[in-house]
Amino acid sequence: MSNRIELERSFILNEVKEKRIMEKIKQENFKLVSEEVEEDTYFSDEDLYFVKNRICLRTRKINDNYLELTYKPKSTEETEKFGKKEVNIQLNVKDYEDIKFIINQLGYITYVSLKKYRTTYSKLVNGIERNIMLDELKGIGKFIELEVLSEKEDKQKMLSELEDFIDEFECRNLKQKQMPYRDIAKKYEKIKAWNGRGIMLKIYNLANKKEYLKEVAILEYNEWGKIQENNEELEIKITKKINKINEQFKEKNFCKLILLDNDKLIGFISIFPTDGDESKDLFPWYSTMYVKADYRGKGYSRILNDAIIEEAKRRKIKRLYLKTKLNKYYEKFGAKFLEILSNGEKLYYIDIVGDKDEK
To answer: Which of 115, 174, 246, 266 is the 20 to 30 A CA-CA neighbour of 162?
Structure first.
């Protein structure tokens, strides 16, 4: 069993950058360590507490001749910055199916499996191991992961080394991978299932799809606004709402995401800087989760939730607050109860966990 501290940062790789990275690897004399096919299976509890809290329980089979079991504990604010311990136990590859069977019998479910083609290069710099992993998930995309690894747990030094590593390989202009491979594979699995049924789902920022703005404004008003009998007055209210949303687009912590199926609006969700007159000291807010009536009960709210959480990560938001009159609905998304507000609504929070814990 090995205990180690590692820090890594991952980015989405394009063909042009991949070519430059290969030239830099050669120039800096990185050694080719391995070319592997990794088959990962991730496990969780039935309530998906592991998934919500970035706890990793995983088997990894490499090239059909190596097997290890990995555990990484729950994420905290410190581990988001410095990484965390991982425990790896080498197993006999012949016991692969038996190991998965035992894990399932202990009450853990198989969450997702993926196959990853990985080429690894390595070099020792300042006493710390630097690794470059070039990954390909067939049918999903290519990625680069830069990693620093040490048994000494000199966290601040490792963090500085990682930042230098990123700069030296000019990766800051690449889009950062916002989810661990586990969640990317699960998301792709869901989309593939939807598409197999003729459903083409896409998430967009409403700021970039303003042709849907009026429809969103009408749905919001019908759901949460005061009903007006006069059609002319209603049109005025809708116009004001459209103008308000357009102004909100300029605010730092405002975002409204929409879910489309073949260009047809299914629902939307938002991040608000503030939400109402109560708890003004709390911000920002998870708000306006909405799925059209014909689409409810089909898992679309989960897609919207996952999208807004990823958007919060991208914006470096650490916690979102939400209020609702619904009973035990948002707990399935990881919301934790705080208190009952004076207007009778329940106040919750959702901690936003980053993606530095799993590969």
So the answer is: 115
